[in-house]
Structures are given as structure tokens and as C-alpha cells.
Design goal:
Radius of gyration: 41 Å
Distance between the termini: 126 Å
Shape: rod-shaped
Structural class: mainly alpha
Oligomer: single chain
Number of strands: 0
Length: 73
């Protein structure tokens, strides 16, 4: 007696295998986030030029030039 192949069970097993394989691939591709403390201390280099005094001196000199006694106006 010739038996017919069990295509339904073979397809079900193949489908199950493919689903499990896809899940394993997706789980293995998840990104890994790692937070680490730096070895060296954080340094902030501030190269700031302060010219506030120069501006104040110029403004005071201009006030003296534009007074009523200077005769410009």
C-alpha cells in the first residue's frame, strides 16, 4: 500500500521552523546601549577676552567730548 505524503504536517513544521528562525534573528539584532564613566575628568577651556573696561573708558571720553562746554553743538 502506497502512503500519501503528509504535506500539511511538513508545511506546518516548516512554517514553525521559519517563525522560530525569524524570532532568533530579530532577537540577536537588538542594539545594545552602554553607559560608561569617562576615564579622564571633563575640562572646559574658556578662552574669553573681556574688554568691558575699554568700552566704559571710551563711553566716558565721548560724554566729555559731547558736553555743552565743548562747543560742538
Amino acid at each position: 500500500m502506497i502512503q500519501r505524503p503528509r504535506t500539511r504536517s511538513v508545511l506546518l513544521n516548516l512554517w514553525t521552523f521559519l517563525v522560530i528562525l525569524a524570532m532568533m534573528v530579530l532577537v540577536s539584532c537588538t542594539p545594545r546601549v552602554e553607559v560608561a564613566v569617562p576615564d579622564k575628568p571633563i575640562t572646559i577651556n574658556l578662552n574669553v577676552k573681556i574688554d568691558h573696561e575699554i568700552r566704559v573708558k571710551v563711553e566716558k571720553d565721548l560724554e566729555n567730548v559731547f558736553t555743552d562746554q565743548s562747543g560742538l553743538f
